Amino acid sequence: MKKILLTIFLIMSINSAYAELKIGFVSINKILKDAPQTAISNKKLEKEFKVKTDKLKKSIVALQTKAKSLEKNGLTMDDTTREAKKRELQLAQIDIQRSERELKEDINLRRREELNKLQAKVNIAIDQFATKEKYDLILYQGVAFTSEATDVTKEVVKMMGTVK
Question: Does domain 2-60+94-160 have CATH number 3.40.50.300?
Answer without folding.
Answer: no
